[in-house]
Amino acid sequence: MSERTVIIAGFVVLLAAALGALVFARLRRETVASLAETITYVIGIRTVRIVAVLGWAWLGWHFLVR
């Protein structure tokens, strides 16, 4: 298997896991929080907001400056 094939397979597995989690959250609304609820809760924590801003700044600096 080539490196490209392994990377594509990895992204397909991640996509399938994300879709599976989405379906599971929709079917079990009373026990599993949706993605929007989870993000709303997590972004309410100050440390997470700071890390998110620093992460976006790092990505922007490294990919958009060129």
Automatic annotation (TrEMBL):
Keywords: Membrane, Transmembrane, Transmembrane helix. The chain crosses the membrane at residues 6-27, 39-59. The keyword Transmembrane applies. Pfam families: DUF6186. This is Uncharacterized protein. It comes from Nocardia uniformis.
